[in-house]
Write a structure and sequence with these properties.
The chain is of the alpha/beta class. The chain folds into 3 domains: 256 residues, Rossmann fold; 129 residues, Luciferase, domain 3 (Roll), CATH 2.30.38.10; 105 residues, ANL, C-terminal domain (GMP Synthetase, Chain A, domain 3). It contains 18 helices and 27 strands. The protein has a 9-stranded mixed β-sheet, sandwiched between helices. It has a 5-stranded parallel β-sheet with strand order 4-3-5-6-7. Strands 17, 18, 20, 21 and 22 form a 5-stranded antiparallel β-sheet that branches.
Length: 548
């Protein structure tokens, strides 16, 4: 196969009438206080408002129609189409339609402000924007400032005057597969970095990157046609989509759940027969907390078919997985590591056979190589030393679009990608220590916040924690712990300090702050926001010239 779209073509031919995608909107259920099956009997509430589905043939047909629409409007190979949608049934057909036209899909973060949307549209040289009703106000603010965006397509009812209706236009286009040869080395998509410096970078991924991510995911987790994947994270991010790619490769069904409440997750698994669920750390914690409080009862759900729970996007507290295995002892478990510059997860993974090494991010993924290097970015560290994790494999990005200097900083000789993550190797397994820019230097000692966070999360009253550096006149920086306490529990600063006696003295937080820990849609702690809130900035970030 030359492109990611070739897989969709094959699925549509081999399993045209099998369900490919299901969209679940549980908020509609809550309004009626009913079960998913009973909902379909309520005459005033059509089932489509809560649950809708699409076969592989319909999926491919919709993608072809959108591709042919773009071609009819003069779009050509290499043009860029931005996608600004919440998770919905239209998201993936639009994404694949862009690719089938030979254009580059440019997914946008649904949390972007109007100014951030404009910045990313300009940076990516976007020629079109597809957006949903949740973004009408933001798009209207900046649309006159983006003259290059010559097509604005609205997905939803009540199309605004400055856009055209996606459904009205595309439904009349041909459903035939567009002609035109593409190769694995052709550009396929532009994704954006998390923007921890305040200015996201545009990451160019080729078809070879996307194809490899399909194979990696399936090799790691053994998806078959009979598996059903529950997708909860936002599709604009490489994590959600590339984990789905493993099911996509074998023609398995996927369920898009629009909500993260523990009850909704368990009901989706139960009533849709989900076998694989990828969770972020906060969601896994919420599920366990809800079970322990008695808010949900496992006997109310059909969960025997659920075989795999895996986590990625941020360091995973070992204590969390120990709790999970007590509640779900039959589950396989895997930790997945990657970044958008490596086409998302799978560059490193624990492996379901290595549950006894929970705490490590694992070993090199299928088709990947790893090494831990010194500050020069090339020389491997000595055994047991901390250094920067570097990756090499078919999923490495092509470049940062229009940013050769930033590309040169991260892509090194021989195709190695510097991740910016500090790591060490023990007994053949890689352990993530921290982000290079998050390292705290206190009195000449390096503190790695992740290690402190993992320790604190083992306290039974702590729900979440983030450790940042605060400026200190004598030590340079001190560690501050922002702690979120579990619902219904109490915790004092004195109790935290007493608990921290179990850590070496120099690692103990010098300041305790009780507050919510902000996380982005992919589950990563928003430490730049915390530094701004508490007047702090990492010394390493300052020394590297990284702004917040």
């Amino acid at each position: 196969m030359n492109t990611i779209a070739d897989i969709l073509e094959r699925n549509a031919k081999e399993w045209p009438n099998d369900v490919a995608l299901v969209e679940i909107n549980p908020q509609e259920l809550e309004a009626h206080r009913t079960t998913w099956r009973e909902y379909s009997l309520i005459e005033s509430s059509p089932i489509e408002a809560f649950r809708s589905e699409m076969t592989w043939a319909q999926f491919n047909e919709k993608a072809n129609r959108f591709a042919n629409f773009l071609l009819s409007r003069g779009f050509r190979k290499g043009d860029k189409v931005a996608i600004l949608l919440m998770n919905c049934l239209e998201w993936l057909p639009i994404y694949f339609g862009v690719i089938k036209a030979g254009c580059l899909a440019v997914p946008l973060n649904f949390r972007y402000t109007a100014d951030e949307i404009k910045y990313c549209l300009d940076l990516a040289d976007a020629d079109a924007l597809v957006f949903g009703p949740e973004f009408t106000g933001r798009v209207e603010q900046i649309i006159d400032q983006t003259p290059r965006v010559k097509i604005r397509l609205y997905v939803g009812d009540d199309c605004p005057s400055f856009a055209e209706s996606y459904r009205n236009l595309v439904s009349y286009c041909s459903s035939r597969t567009p002609s035109g040869a593409m190769s694995p080395e052709d550009d396929a998509a532009i994704y954006f970095s998390s923007g921890t410096t305040g200015f996201p970078k545009a990451i160019v991924l080729q078809h070879r990157c996307l194809l490899h991510s399909c194979v990696v995911e399936q090799k790691h987790h053994g998806q078959t046609k009979d598996d059903t994947f529950l997708c909860i994270p936002p599709l604009y991010h490489t994590g959600a989509k590339m984990h789905w790619f493993g099911s996509f490769l074998v023609g398995g069904k996927a369920v898009l759940l629009k909500g993260v409440k523990p009850e909704w997750i368990l009901r989706a698994v139960s009533e849709e027969g989900c076998t694989i669920v990828w969770l972020l750390v906060p969601w896994a914690q919420d599920v366990l907390d809800a079970i322990e409080r008695g808010d949900v009862k496992l006997e109310d759900y059909r969960l025997d078919q659920w075989r795999l729970m895996h986590i990625g996007a941020q360091p995973v507290p070992p204590a969390l997985i120990k709790r999970w295995k007590k509640v779900f002892p039959h589950h396989d478990y895997d930790t997945n590591y990657g970044l958008s510059e490596s086409t998302g997860p799978g560059a490193v993974h624990l492996g379901i056979e290595n549950i006894d090494h929970v705490g490590a991010i694992g070993v090199a993924g299928y088709g990947w190589q790893t090494k831990i290097v010194r500050p020069d970015g090339e020389t491997p560290v000595a055994a047991g030393e901390v250094g920067e994790l570097a990756l090499k494999g078919p999923g490495v990005m092509k470049e940062y679009y229009k940013n050769p200097s930033a590309t040169a900083e991260i892509l090194k000789e021989g195709g190695w990608l510097l991740t910016g993550d500090m790591a060490e190797e023990r007994d053949g397994f890689i352990y993530l220590v921290d982000r290079a820019k998050d390292v705290i230097i206190t009195g000449g000692e390096n503190l790695y916040p992740v290690q402190i966070e993992d320790f604190l999360r083992s306290h039974p009253a702590i729900k979440d924690v983030a450790v940042i550096g605060l400026a200190d006149q004598r030590l340079g920086e001190i560690a501050a712990a922002i702690i979120s306490v579990k619902e219904g529990m109490k915790l004092t600063e004195e109790e935290v300090n007493a608990f921290c006696l179990g850590m070496p003295r120099y690692k103990r937080p010098r300041r305790i702050i009780f507050a919510e820990v902000p996380r982005n849609p992919t589950g990563k702690i928003e430490k730049p926001k915390l530094r701004q809130m508490y007047g702090a900035s990492s010394l390493v970030a300052q020394q590297n010239g990284i702004g917040e």
